[in-house]
Amino acid sequence: MGVIFIPIRVASLLASRAVVEVVDRYDNACLPSNATNKDAKIAYIQNRDTNKNCTRTITITKDMNQPIYVYYQLDNFYQNHRRYVKSRNDQQLRDESKANETDYCDPEKTTADGKPIVPCGLIAWSLFNDTYSFARGSENINSQ
């Protein structure tokens, strides 16, 4: 058994050394300096008039071979948690005339001024729309 698994282990070790992993935590870096507590962060996120574009530049010092994978790491985010799964209103999604119904949408059911959120609920609020671009020096690298 050892004769079989030693080459597999060596191949795995060599392949793992070629992996380049870069971690960039940007959740707080993209918030304005006055958003120091939880309520201020929520108010910033819910304010439609605020531009929320955030540009981050990360310099990679090692060579990376294609394909390059980008992924999210979310801590304390449980999509199988009962509160998350139940936080939606199916009637609101099925029938346009019931758009103002926000039953079962806690905690994301109304805006700060009391208007209903459409679609409401945690599921509708968990959309990640980050975009990435890659460049080597001044040359942009096309992503596929």
From TrEMBL:
GO cellular component: endoplasmic reticulum; Golgi apparatus; plasma membrane
UniProt membrane topology term: Multi-pass membrane protein
Localization per record: Membrane
Keyword Translocase: no
Keyword Membrane: yes
Record keywords: Membrane, Signal, Transmembrane, Transmembrane helix
Domain of life assignment: Eukaryota
InterPro entries: CDC50/LEM3_fam
One of the Pfam families matching this protein, by short name: CDC50
Region feature Disordered, mapped onto this chain: 88-109
Signal peptide limits: 1-15
UniProt similarity note: Belongs to the CDC50/LEM3 family.
Listed name of the protein: LEM3 (Ligand-effect modulator 3) family protein / CDC50 family protein
Source species: Rhynchospora pubera
